[in-house]
Amino acid sequence: MRIFKTTAVVIGMALVLSTAAFAAGDAKKGKMLFDDANFAGGSVSCSSCHPDGKEMEKAVMRGKKEWKNPGGTWLSLEDANNVCIILANKGKAIDPKSAEMKDLIAYFKSLKK
Ligand code: HEC
Fold it and tell me: Tens digit of pLDDT for each residue in 58-67?
């Protein structure tokens, strides 16, 4: 009985950790996308205007409610990312719930000191 419980707890924890890792995105992949001139079908990289993700750590500050870029003011980070993708990178908006969007945001979070 005790062994059964321990096994169940270990499996449960593994499940929680793996879904958390998936939901949180992959910062390394996010950096690759950020540096990729052809990301989302565009022709300039995010990092050409935001070198090394400069200031992007502020975009993931807790409690932030508005994001500003040359396209306007946005109520979600995903929208702000997509507007830069469209207007600045000359690419096509990506799904706000996609792995790529999560990877980008994970990269921004990794920049926080
Ligand atoms: C042609 C230049 C340019 C490119 C390329 C560009 N951006 Fe921006 N972006 C700006 C400017 C200018 C601002 C507004 C000033 C600032 O925050 O640096 C901005 C603002 C932002 C903000 C809002 C920051 C905040 O805290 O309110 C986010 C998020 C953002 N950009 C993400 C991206 C992403 C992701 C990419 C690549 C898909 C990208 N940008 C590509 C110029 C660019």
Answer: 999 999 999 9
Ligand 1 centre to CA of 108 (Å) is 12
Which residues have CB under 6 Å of ligand 1?
Answer: 39, 44, 46, 48-50, 55, 58-59, 67-70, 77, 80-81, 84-85, 88-89, 104
Atom of ligand 1 nearest to the CA of 58: 26
Q: How far from 47 is each of 15, 32, 61, 63, CA to CA, in Å? A: 35, 10, 19, 25
Q: What is the pLDDT of residues 15-39, one digit of tens each?
A: 666 555 556 899 999 999 999 999 9
